Amino acid sequence: xxxxxxxxxxxxxxxxxxxxxxxxxxxxxxxxxxxxxxxxxxxxxxxx
Length: 48
Known about the structure:
Elements: H1 2-47
């Protein structure tokens, strides 16, 4: 039973590590998109 738990935890850790490293670029892209949207909203409110 404990070998099965260790195996499952190991798989989960490897999977999370892979997702975390691949998500860095995605999160960065989302941050840039939100920044651009905020800049545009600020520009629109200044013009009115």
